[in-house]
């Protein structure tokens, strides 16, 4: 399948990744893009006037049927989520996203949708394979035996399996990507749901503004991660949707860094050096996580490759512009 003039609905379009995908598809000339989110329109990360923007709670079955009506392609990004600070303290809320995933699958099946994309996460991977900073990069089969992130990861793994059975039992074509840490401009950078790259940019910018040259880092700073820039993410989402990949697949960068190295990168962008303190009681997630990209390279001949320092420079610049912007309301 090639996306050209299908009717497309993006669930969770008021969020970070959904908003960027709406933009990407509109730029490609796709005419009917329905954008749905539970947040009031003025809280969407971005919104495009050319899209049909709807505010609906997709935990409700009727709302999902309304969202899917007349659509051929569904992108399912809607989920109650955030960085480690949010998912470690809101496990029930994270699991309630199962209502969105379930009702959207039913609505897609009953509305003649041709294909559904589901955004899963690296949080589905077995925790025992992520206990050390130099743990081997995660291959798709490392999701089993199942020991995912408590709450959030279990919901993602369950929804992945539901997609598989909807395809097997009802013929609904599903494509599933497991995202590894996505970052970039227009993402959340404050308020409790922000993730490490945006939080570190914000802390460095605040240190620069206040002249208080200190930064608190969650955990020892030695935990390792990879981070995927948003443009790689939206390209990968589209390529996977259009492909014949019938199994959940990693969509992430394989450029591994420690959190300390991520702070080094941001300090260099900002032209500043800060005194670091380490909060060992803060939520910090697993000790080591990287994306094994063997499969995506085999299937697509491509993998996310935007360098971390380049993506972080753009992200830093955007967050700085937001923090320095005069309040207009
Ligand atoms: P986000 O929080 O910015 O976007 C999710 C959107 O879903 C939000 O705007 C939220 O309001 C909306 N939503 C939540 N509940 C809803 C409901 N009941 N009805 C309608 N809309 C609802 O998150 P994101 O970073 O854009 O992530 C998109 C998807 O990718 C999520 O499913 C997330 O779990 C997954 N993912 C993201 C990352 C990442 O690093 N950003 C990593 C792994 C997986």
How is this structure best summarized?
Helix content is 38%, strand content 16%.
Quickly list its features.
two-stranded parallel ribbon, alpha/beta, 329 residues, binds nicotinamide-adenine-dinucleotide, Rossmann fold, 38% helix, UDP-galactose 4-epimerase, domain 1, 11 helices, 2 domains
Show unreliable segments. Answer: none
Strand order of the largest sheet: 3-2-1-4-5-6-11
* Name given to the CATH architecture of the largest domain: 3-Layer(aba) Sandwich
Radius of gyration (Å)? 19 Å
How much of the polypeptide forms β-strand, as a percent range?
A: 15-25%
Give a description of the structure.
It is a single chain. The protein has 329 residues and is of the alpha/beta class. The chain has helices at 16-27, 61-68, 84-87, 91-96, 98-110, 152-170, 196-210, 230-242, 259-270, 294-300, 308-324; strands spanning 8-11, 33-37, 52-55, 73-76, 115-121, 173-179, 182-183, 214-218, 224-226, 228-229, 249-251, 256-258, 275-279. It folds into two domains: 7-182 and 228-251, 3-Layer(aba) Sandwich (Rossmann fold), CATH 3.40.50; 185-225 and 256-321, UDP-galactose 4-epimerase, domain 1, CATH 3.90.25.10. The longest helix has 19 residues, at 152-170. It starts with 7 loop residues before the first strand and ends in a 5-residue tail after the last helix. The model has no long low-confidence stretch (mean pLDDT 96). Bound molecules: nicotinamide-adenine-dinucleotide.
């Amino acid at each position: 399948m090639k996306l050209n003039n299908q009717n497309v609905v993006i669930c969770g379009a008021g969020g970070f990744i959904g908003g960027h995908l709406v933009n990407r598809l509109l730029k490609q000339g796709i005419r009917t893009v329905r954008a749905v989110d539970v947040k009031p329109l003025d809280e969407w990360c971005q919104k495009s006037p050319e899209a049909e923007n709807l505010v609906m709670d997709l935990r409700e079955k009727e709302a999902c049927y309304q969202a899917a009506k007349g659509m051929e392609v569904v992108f399912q990004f809607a989920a109650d989520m955030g960085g480690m600070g949010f998912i470690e303290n809101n496990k029930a809320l994270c699991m309630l996203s199962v209502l969105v995933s379930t009702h959207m699958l039913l609505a897609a099946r009953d509305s003649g949708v041709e294909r559904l994309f589901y955004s899963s996460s690296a949080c589905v991977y077995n925790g025992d394979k992520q206990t050390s900073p130099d743990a081997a990069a995660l291959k798709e089969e490392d999701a089993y035996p199942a020991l995912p992130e408590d709450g959030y990861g279990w919901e993602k793994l369950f929804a992945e399996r539901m997609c598989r059975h909807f395809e097997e039992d009802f013929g609904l074509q599903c494509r599933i990507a497991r995202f590894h840490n996505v970052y970039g401009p227009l993402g959340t950078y404050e308020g409790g749901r922000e993730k490490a790259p945006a939080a570190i940019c914000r802390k460095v910018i605040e240190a620069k503004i206040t002249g208080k040259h200190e930064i608190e880092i969650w955990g020892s700073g030695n935990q390792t991660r990879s981070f995927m820039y948003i443009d790689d993410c939206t390209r990968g989402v589209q390529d996977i949707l259009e492909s014949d990949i019938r199994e959940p697949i990693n969509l992430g960068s394989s450029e591994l860094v420690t959190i300390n190295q991520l702070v080094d990168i941001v300090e260099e962008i900002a032209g500043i050096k800060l005194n670091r303190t380490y909060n060992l009681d803060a939520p910090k997630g697993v000790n080591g996580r990287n994306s094994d990209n063997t499969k995506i390279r085999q299937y697509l001949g491509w993998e996310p490759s935007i360098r971390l320092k380049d993506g972080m420079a753009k992200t830093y610049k955007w967050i700085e512009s937001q923090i320095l912007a005069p309040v207009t309301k």
